[in-house]
């Protein structure tokens, strides 16, 4: 039993109970549930929970965010926000509270388990960091030496008690003041020395000795030294000055020697990012070595040049006004820009310094790339929401069209007038089915509905049916008995067809496409014949498909972009740029790999790897009839669409089955239980997964299983990416029938389950 104490805050009792029961099944002690602000705060104070899971929008609360802020800030509790869709302002306020994670409704237990694990890990890390910070500041406070820390432009950010005592300044008043105004020091002649200027050292001492003028005007002889303060990436973020009373405070007879090594120069030369200093006329007065490496392209020197001459005209025009205004007002300014020659993104931060500016350029390339990747995912998620809702309704329509066309094709004699038109419509409907599934796969990756596939046989079928280009020669090379794979046949077909189409488009004037199929065990993967970018598990066996064309090929600088959504080298108006993205999404969902590289001497080679099946003896064979059935099996149907219901009944009764139809899960469960208790249960139930405004297949099968654990059931849906469709057995179903489907697919699956 996991000892973490979890509090659930939700005014919808059912949702809170669902979360509670899920956590119990995951091994956590029973969480408490609070439905009001008063109950929530009482439990927080009494039970001291380790984690809070809270609905982001609660109807019974005046302000859910205020409650979350109290729990987060006053009690330091990690929070997971549970939400469906919230308005932009609520999401913004939620972000200010810095939750550990967001859990989107509806969620599954795997998502809940991951969110809780991440939340607890982040909470432990934060607590460890706070402990280290407490220890760190405790150490600084107990130091015998005085210590002052500053930010990069010299504004004070910390003083320990010894520094307060020596300077006469309390930190609360000195915070954000310029270092020189607090640490005011002079040499033996009375000349004021900047706190961070070239050092004067005593002949017998390793540190500089000088006079500190305290806040009350008294002078104290001190020794001081400075060191850089850097972030984990090595970039300068400030300075630390350590000083103490000199041992010989009464001695003023020492001879200063000028140390020609500027300590500031030593510090900034070690900074990992480019650093410039400019005067009020934008003349560069100082650069560190990193700036020289990146910006001194002609090796002619940078000092004395105009700062803005190093930038493209568009960068200069967009930013010079704001930065110049910041210089005039003594304010900080910043902007981001792309440096073409180095291929780096930089954030330029400008700080007032000696009448001009100190300009630090931080490398933010990684952050920009991560942001672009996040934007890509956001686009896919947005498309997913659109595609998923569209696909369900459209797949229902396609099921009716496809089913009736298939029936007409069977009933009408071959060669009769209209037969060709029916076949053309049937072919177009199948292409429409493929496009809908392609959109879903592109958006979400699509959960594969796996079968044991003979890869070689599937390619032969595709080549026989494929609408080939007369100017292109198609060749299939298979040198051995190819292993079977566990894959979604529809998705696998889409990968092959997309790769063929992509190769054809690379050869508008004709050419040759070679499809090579081979097995690859761990030894074969290590021989180096496959692209280095093909990331595979060397402990597994794979079936490798190579699609090679002799077209124009692809430039090396475009290789990284080929799997990005909407990227295309084609200029035609109908070029979507999603074909290879779909392929990558499908392959990744099958735990495989895909890579593209130039082929020698010309063209492109695409390599796809699918894990070989552990079951090489089985293969998926559809039964084409129900011969041998003496007693008509009884089938119960749950389908809310009347046209699909009619089609199901027509196809099943045509094969001799006895059919009962229902359109809501409540009626389905009642009829099944009634017939089961009569001693003559239904032989099979076919259920639509989703029934708007009613009970769908997922809930209905749960209730039936409580009465009959041996029930045989098929789940059907236009939502092919639903977890139930990908793993029907774990939800109590015997088989799965994705919409749209043809009558022979329905009959074959029914026959297979009933045999």
Record keyword descriptors for this entry.
five-stranded parallel β-sheet, Rossmann fold, 22 helices, single chain, Beta-Lactamase, globular, seven-stranded antiparallel β-sheet, 755 residues, 5 domains, alpha/beta
Short description:
This protein has 755 residues and is of the alpha/beta class. 39% of the residues lie in helices and 23% in strands.
List the helices and strands and how they pair.
Blueprint: E1 6-9, H1 13-25, E2 32-34, H2 37-47, E3 51-55, H3 64-75, E4 79-83, H4 88-97, E5 101-104, H5 109-141, E6 146-151, E7 156-159, H6 161-167, H7 171-174, H8 179-182, E8 184-186, E9 192-193, E10 200-201, E11 208-213, E12 219-230, E13 236-245, E14 257-258, H9 263-269, E15 275-278, E16 284-287, H10 289-295, H11 313-329, E17 333-339, E18 344-353, E19 356-363, H12 365-411, H13 419-444, E20 451-453, H14 455-465, E21 472-478, E22 485-487, H15 489-505, E23 511-520, H16 522-525, E24 542-549, H17 579-589, E25 593-598, E26 604-611, E27 634-638, H18 642-654, E28 658-662, H19 665-677, E29 684-688, H20 697-707, E30 713-717, H21 723-726, E31 735-738, H22 743-754
Parallel strand pairs: 1-2, 1-3, 3-4, 4-5, 21-23, 27-28, 27-29, 29-30, 30-31
Antiparallel strand pairs: 6-7, 6-13, 8-9, 8-11, 10-14, 11-12, 12-13, 15-16, 15-19, 17-18, 18-19, 20-22, 23-24, 24-26, 25-26
């Amino acid at each position: 039993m996991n000892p973490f104490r979890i509090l659930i805050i939700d005014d919808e009792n059912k949702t809170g109970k669902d979360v509670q029961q899920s956590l119990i099944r995951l091994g956590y002690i029973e969480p408490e549930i609070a439905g009001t602000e008063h109950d929530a705060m009482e439990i927080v104070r009494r039970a001291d929970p380790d984690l809070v899971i809270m609905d982001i929008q609660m109807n019974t609360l005046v302000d859910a965010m205020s409650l979350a802020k109290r729990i987060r800030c006053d009690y330091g509790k990690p929070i997971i926000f549970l939400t469906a869709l919230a308005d932009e302002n609520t999401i913004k306020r939620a972000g200010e509270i810095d939750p550990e994670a967001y859990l989107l409704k509806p969620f599954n237990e795997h998502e809940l388990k991951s969110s809780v694990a991440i939340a607890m890990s982040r909470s432990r890390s934060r607590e460890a960091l706070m402990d280290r910070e407490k220890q760190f500041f405790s150490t600084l406070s107990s130091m015998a030496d005085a210590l002052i820390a500053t930010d990069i432009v010299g504004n004070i950010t910390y003083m320990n008690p010894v520094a307060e005592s020596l300077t006469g300044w309390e930190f609360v008043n000195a915070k954000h003041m310029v270092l020189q105004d607090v640490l005011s020091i002079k040499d033996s002649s009375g000349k004021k020395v900047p706190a961070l200027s070239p050092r004067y050292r005593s002949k017998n001492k390793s540190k500089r000795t000088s006079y500190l003028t305290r806040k009350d005007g008294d002078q104290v002889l001190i020794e001081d030294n400075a060191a850089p303060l850097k972030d984990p990436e090595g970039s300068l973020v400030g300075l630390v000055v350590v000083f103490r009373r000199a041992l010989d405070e009464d001695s003023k007879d020492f001879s200063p020697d000028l140390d020609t090594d500027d300590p500031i120069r030593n510090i900034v030369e070690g900074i990992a990012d480019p650093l410039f200093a400019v005067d009020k006329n934008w003349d560069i007065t100082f650069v560190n070595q990193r700036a020289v490496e990146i910006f001194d392209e002609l090796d002619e020197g940078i000092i004395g040049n105009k700062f803005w001459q190093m930038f493209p005209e568009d960068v200069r025009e967009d930013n010079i006004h704001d930065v110049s205004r910041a210089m005039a007002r003594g304010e900080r300014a910043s902007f981001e820009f792309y440096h073409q020659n180095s291929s780096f993104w930089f954030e330029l931060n400008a700080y007032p310094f000696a009448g001009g500016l100190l300009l630090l350029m931080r490398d933010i390339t990684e952050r920009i790339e991560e942001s672009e990747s996040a934007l890509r995912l956001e686009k896919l998620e947005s498309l997913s929401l659109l595609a998923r809702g569209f696909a369900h309704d459209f797949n229902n329509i396609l099921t009716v069209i496809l089913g009736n066309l298939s029936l007409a094709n069977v009933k009408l004699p071959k060669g009769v007038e209209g037969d060709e038109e029916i076949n053309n419509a049937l072919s177009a409907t199948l292409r429409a089915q493929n496009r809908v599934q392609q959109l879903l796969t592109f958006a979400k990756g699509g959960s594969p509905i796996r079968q044991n596939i003979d890869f070689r046989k599937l390619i032969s079928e595709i080549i026989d049916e494929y609408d080939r280009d007369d100017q292109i020669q198609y060749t299939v090379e298979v040198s051995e008995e190819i292993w079977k794979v566990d894959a979604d046949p529809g998705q696998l077909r889409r990968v092959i067809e997309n790769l063929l189409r992509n190769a054809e488009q690379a050869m508008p004037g004709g050419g040759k496409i070679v499809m090579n199929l081979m097995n690859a065990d761990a030894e074969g993967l290590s021989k180096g014949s496959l692209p280095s970018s093909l990331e595979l598990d060397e402990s597994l066996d794979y079936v490798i498909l190579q699609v090679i064309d002799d077209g124009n090929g692809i430039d090396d600088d475009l290789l990284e972009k080929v799997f990005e959504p909407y990227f295309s080298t084609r200029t035609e108006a109908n070029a979507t740029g999603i074909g290879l993205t779909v392929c990558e999404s499908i392959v990744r969902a099958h735990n495989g790999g895909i890579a593209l590289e130039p082929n020698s001497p010309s063209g492109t080679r695409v390599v796809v790897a699918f894990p070989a099946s552990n079951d090489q003896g089985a293969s998926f064979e559809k039964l084409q009839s129900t011969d041998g059935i003496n007693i008509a099996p009884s089938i119960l149907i749950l389908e809310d669409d009347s046209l699909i219901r009619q089609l199901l009944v027509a196809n099943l009764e045509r094969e001799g089955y006895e059919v009962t139809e229902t359109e809501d899960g409540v009626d389905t469960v009642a009829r099944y239980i009634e017939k089961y208790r009569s001693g003559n249960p239904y032989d099979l139930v076919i259920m639509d997964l989703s029934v708007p405004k009613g009970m769908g297949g997922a809930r209905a099968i749960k209730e039936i299983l409580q009465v009959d654990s041996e029930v045989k059931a098929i789940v059907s849906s236009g939502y092919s990416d639903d977890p139930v469709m990908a793993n029907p057995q774990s939800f109590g179903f015997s088989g799965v029938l994705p919409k749209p489907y043809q009558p022979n697919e329905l009959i074959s699956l029914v026959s297979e389950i009933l045999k």
